[in-house]
Amino acid sequence: MNLLFALLSFLPLLVLPAQAQDVPGEDAARVTIRALLSVSGPPASGETRMVVNGSGGIVAEADGAVLEIDLAPGNYTVEAVSGLATRSERIRVRPGGGSQSFRVNLRSGILAVRSRSAARMVLMEAEPDVFGEQPILAETEERVWALTVPQGRYRLLVEGEAGRKILDQDVEIVPARREVVTTR
Fold it and tell me: Which of 20, 84, 95, 98 is buried deepest, with most CB atoms within 10 A?
């Protein structure tokens, strides 16, 4: 009896299967989803992750800038993440099978930094927040750094040993472009 009660108490924690609408049937379409840096730009590079959510929760998730999947007709939300860039798009899969293609525009570019003497690189918001702080978005101790970043203006700080400032400048990220910064 105690075992039965214990099993029943864990039922709400189990992941329920996708609802019938999300299960591909004979009316399913072969869907290709691409995560792009801009509307018609190149695919996202680096570590990219896509998640497709249907009415019953997650239908598919995969690493990479291209996802091919069979989906039942209906509405879905696709979330794409590449570096600091995140975008969520709603898609509608039409009935009738066949192939359908969708794009997720990350509205982002690539920041590529190279410094022979860097001990630390930091990417921050360009403008201070309401508390006067500039939030750190990402940092690394590598000497070569490439990161997908949403369109906008940022502050890049490159420090050498013992916190010696090598570079402190604003960088402008434009969709589908590579912003290259090189220091000594």
Answer: 84
Pairing type for strands 178-183 and 144-150 reads unpaired
CB atoms inside a 10 Å sphere around CB 93: 21
Using an 8 Å Cβ cutoff, are 102 and 29 in contact? no
Pick from 112, 118, 123, 111: nearest CA to 184: 118
* 172, two tokens: 């402008």
User: Do 113 and 158 touch, CB atoms closer than 8 A?
Assistant: yes
Burial class of residue 118 (count of CB atoms within 10 Å of its CB; 0-12, 13-18, 19+): buried
Residue by residue, DSSP assigns 69-126 as EEE-SEEEEEEEEETTEEEEEEEEEPSS-SEEEEEEE--EEEEEEEETT-SEEEEEES
Tokens of 177: 């472009």
- The answer to whether 51 and 87 are in contact (CB under 8 A) is no
Give 132-174 pLDDT, tens digit per residue: 898 999 999 999 999 999 999 999 999 999 989 999 999 999 9
How confident is the model at residue 11, as a pLDDT?
Answer: 38
Amino acid, single-letter form, for residue 137 = L
Radius of gyration of the chain (CA): 22
